[in-house]
Specification:
It is a single chain. This protein is of the alpha/beta class. The protein has five domains: 123 residues, no CATH class; 99 residues, no CATH class; 134 residues, Nucleotidyltransferase, domain 5; 218 residues, no CATH class; 85 residues, no CATH class. It is built from 32 helices and eight strands. Strands 3, 4, 5, 6, 7 and 8 form a six-stranded mixed β-sheet that branches. α14 packs across α15 and α16 crosses α20. The longest helix is centred in the first third of the chain and has 25 residues. The radius of gyration is 32 Å and the shape is globular.
Amino acid sequence: MQNQCAAPNCTSLKSDSYSLFRFPLDAERCKTWVEKCQREDLMDKSPEHLFRYYRLCGKHFETSDDSSEPVTVIKDDAIPTIFDDPSKLQNAQGKRSKEMDEDTAGGRKKIKNSQGEEDKEEATETTPKEDTYRDYLRSLFEALVLLGEQNIPVSRSSSIKQDTQINNFEALLEYRISCGDEEMKKYEANREGCSSLQLKQLIEVCERCIRSKVIEEVKENGFFSLITDDVVKILEEWYLPVFLRYVEDSNYQRERFVGFLPFDGDADVLAEKLLSEMINEWGLNMEQCRAQAHACSGTHLTKIKAFSAKVIEKYPLVMLTVRPTQALNITLANAMALSGVQIVMSTLTKIESFFKQSPLLRLELEHAISVIYPDKEEKVKELKEICCTSWTRRHDVFEVTLELLEALLLCVDSVHDNEDLRWSDQITYDALEISKALADYEFIMALVVLKNTMILIRAFGKNLEGEATDVYFAAGGVKAVLHSLKEVSDNIDVYHEFWTEEAVNLSATMEIPVELPRSLLRKRPSDLGSLQPENYYKEHLSLPVVNHMLKEVGELFSDDHIKALRCLSLVPFVVELNKDGNPEENMLVFKNDIPNPGSLTAEVHCWWVKWNKKGKGEILLTSLQETLQQADVKFFPNMLAVLRLLGVLPTLALEVNCDVAYKRFKMYMQNTPDSVKSKSLALLNINNDVGYDLDAMVEAYIKTHPGGDDAS
């Protein structure tokens, strides 16, 4: 009803040139509006009901001058005065009233299409009882959307006694009834409230409608990339978060969260299941997918690998890439299913959480730094400044951790001792857990290996998060990175000897014994014999780490991926720096997706000439987003197509305000208690800027769960 004018014989819709204005909430003015438009059937409706479900279009209001332009704004005290002759209205009143009530209740009526032909769909008759039920469902969905948008749990936490307090959803419904929601009053009079089963059904329908809206938005804009984040646990079940990146018609990058997929079962079976649900249940058109990126920890690596391989097997045009939501070195380390590496990564996570608990803990660490480096003022100053940043996420995190290691151990030991009783039991317990990890030779050896291998990709990884120029030149340096890793792998005996010496010296300084992993000593104490730590860590740590990095970098930066990134040569600033380049060869990676492949060479030449002939004082564009926003880019259809495809690639960092979905997802997972997390309401909360259609939700619910009004 919100999309059509309520005046009899008026066919104005929201999509027409006339604006639609809500009926006023003021009782006297609302009554005047109803009298003016001569709708006797609306006389018994409350102002709140009319405000929510009825509109009058701009052609019923007088303009302030003689302009023939439609009214788009009205004053607070405006009264509609322009209507058809009353004699004509009487003949149409009955028919019009019936159509308006059907539309309000979600029923369908015959309408004319753009060719003037009547729609073949017959009108659906609805009874007053059905109308009341639809209005009631609409109120339920409205309350549910409000809770989801504000991230207010539908149910109370399990720690709250349920026998003394109703849940938040019921409380909101009670409030609406007390405020005069007529639909809620009418329906609640004959039933005991919304059951837990119906609430679950409402939430599921809400999730499907929102996802459908997001998927439709993606489809309308063409190509997209598939992105997943690390697996999360919701109510004791594991789920895979899924995002889609695309470029809007306005040529702005956009990333949307589309939901969680159950993540359990055998790797190959799970891969088929994930892909099937995205296509058959969600309605995703994978033929339009051009890239995929996955972030996963070592324990889930096998399953994610199977899934990405299945996608490429069925859709060869989907290239595997990375996503710059975290540094490349952290991405590679998280994906290693090696005991020592996982100990390092989990300890870094604990350290980050530990120092967030109180600013006094950071001061304690700074004091420990001063104690460890008493005669090195510059070093102390540098490390203290680093501690004020998110240093556990840096490109040089492993180097920094080694430099801070002694101070960290001194700090957490002091906190755990708690001699002056400054710290809570939780903080002292967390300090003990971190202390145990830091004072372990396996941790130190893994940290040393990670530092010395990740340093080979530090510059490369940092450039990937930079401007278009940085990414362009980084793409040209992949072969050098692979060559360095191969050289280390071929000479692992020599490199491992140096790494072992570094780890042993540091352990001696910290008075930590050089030994085999504790887990190995517990499991096989009698089978170890004369096995030396140096030999064990070479075969089970150093060599696997180097080989893993060699394999991962090669897969993540395939020839097609590198060619795609080299297409950043279209950015004007890169054109200036790369005048002698030959970009059309790289652009052939998109030959199936550009409109006129035959004219590619000529168009590239014209593009080159355009940006090499810049005017005096003209500043060249430095980013992909700026280039996409150039009005004259439309005169270069192939260039526009390639630039839009580049905007889809997960490798490229999103512009400011384009990564809102990911930030909201992280906030939801971090700030919502585990006991009230909901995969359905998370989708609503993260996509709270999506235009919700309450009527569509009502229709979807009635279609999925027919007979609900009879059951009451």
